[in-house]
Write a structure and sequence with these properties.
Blueprint lengths: L1 H7 L5 H31 L6 H25 L3 H4 L6 H38 L6 H23 L5 H17 L1 H16 L7 E4 L4 E7 L3 E5 L5 E5 H6 L2 E3 L7 E9 L5 H14 L10 E7 L4 E9 L5 H19 L7 E3 L1 E4 L17 E4 L6 E3 L2
Parallel strand pairs: 9-12
Antiparallel strand pairs: 1-2, 1-5, 2-3, 3-4, 6-8, 7-8, 10-11
């Protein structure tokens, strides 16, 4: 590019060459602003996503500044200008050329950092998998800052090799000193990319803790239990634990309500009654439909199970409570027996024993204790 400009400026005076280069650069910057940027802005307004608007908005000024300052940098490399000035080429480069490039580097660094931060804000507003996006924003800001400093040092011919060596040694020292923090950080990243859970999910850990995910940070994840107690768990521990996400892949969950009825019950009427109770319960979803399952012949009861669905895991306990209450009331009204263990003790006296009325019913000498079992009644002899 510089060679082409040099041939274009061949034969012009220093002032003429300067005016031509500045006119070209400013004209190009104006074209970029009026034609390219505004045209792109009109196009992205027609899209449904916000991310393209963020890109156009953030690259606008760095692009215009880069095109405008490119003329100043070219002037410091143009022989017609350099040879006619009272200062050396090195001075021109020091005071005009390199500062122009430095401004361009800073403008693009600001744009890239701001672009990612705005994208993170959009992701947070729309609801991300969990509140881990700010971590990437902070890491990206650190990367851009370090990269910008390295580019500026390289621009001014400052050797950054010793700095890289020192940074490596410092990184090792920090890694050993903060190994738990580092483990939690990378554990959180692994959980994010594995899509283990997101904000609002109800999870159960193999250690017994269960709750709704309310916050995910760099170091730990916070759960809100059903008792409204906050439990903070390190991300490294979560990364190594068995996690049951009861809100994925969908939030609805099936509940099982065991019911036992006495032998001799009309099973068709009983099943219809219980299914009707479930369909009338507001906490139970209409689809999939509730249904009854005859599981086994028990010792003293026909063992059934009511299967139905609720909208979220946190509604299971309340729905089970309401169903149990209503089922008990309706079965009682309909005269359908729910067997339960009973024990009857009968005290008899053997020949030669004392008066049964005055002896102990359980420990009387010469007495026998008998029992009977019948349909849930436990009797022993």
């Amino acid at each position: 590019m510089i060679d082409a400009v040099t041939r274009l400026l061949d034969g012009l005076t220093a002032w003429q060459a300067t005016l031509v280069v500045l006119a070209i650069s400013l004209g190009a910057a104006l074209v970029v602003e009026v034609v390219v940027i505004r045209g792109a802005s009109r196009l992205v307004r027609r899209t449904d996503t916000e991310f393209d608007n963020i890109v156009v908005r953030n690259v606008r000024w760095p692009l215009v500044v880069s095109v405008a300052l490119a003329g100043i940098y070219v002037l410091t490399r143009t022989p017609a200008v350099v040879e006619s000035t009272l200062v050396t080429a090195d001075l021109l480069d020091t005071f005009f050329g390199r500062p122009s490039l430095a401004v361009i580097v800073l403008a693009w660094a600001w744009a890239l950092n701001n672009l990612v931060n705005e994208a993170v804000d959009v992701v947070k507003e729309k609801g991300s998998r969990f509140d881990f996006a700010p971590v990437f924003s902070n890491v990206w800001t650190l990367v851009v800052s370090v990269g910008t400093v390295a580019a500026l040092l390289r621009l001014y011919d400052i050797d950054i090799t010793p700095l890289l060596g020192a940074a490596g040694v410092a990184g090792i020292a920090v890694g050993f000193a903060a190994k738990d923090t580092v483990a939690n950080f990378f554990g959180g990243i692994a959980l994010y990319f594995d899509d283990t859970y997101k904000l609002g999910d109800y999870i159960v850990l193999d250690s017994g803790e269960a709750g709704t995910v309310v916050q995910v940070g760099i170091r730990s994840t916070t759960l809100m239990t059903r008792d409204e107690v906050l439990v903070t768990v390190p991300n490294s521990a979560l990364n190594a634990a068995k996690i049951v996400n009861e809100s994925a892949p969908q939030r609805r969950r099936r509940i099982r309500v065991p019911i036992g009825v006495a032998y001799g019950t009309d099973v068709d009427a009983f099943e219809a009654l219980v299914v009707g109770i479930a369909e009338a319960e507001s906490l139970v979803l209409d689809s999939p439909k509730p249904r009854m399952r005859f599981r086994r012949f028990g010792d003293s009861a026909l063992e059934y199970e009511l299967l139905c669905w609720v909208a979220s895991p946190t509604r299971r306990a309340r729905a089970t409570h309401e169903l149990n209450r209503t089922i008990y009331q309706r079965l009682t009204e309909q005269g359908i027996e729910i067997p339960y263990p009973k024990r009857d003790l009968t005290v008899t006296s053997s020949p030669g024993s004392s008066n049964p009325a005055t002896s102990s019913p359980l420990a009387g000498e010469g007495e026998a204790v008998s029992g009977e079992t019948d349909g849930g009644h436990d009797r022993r002899d």
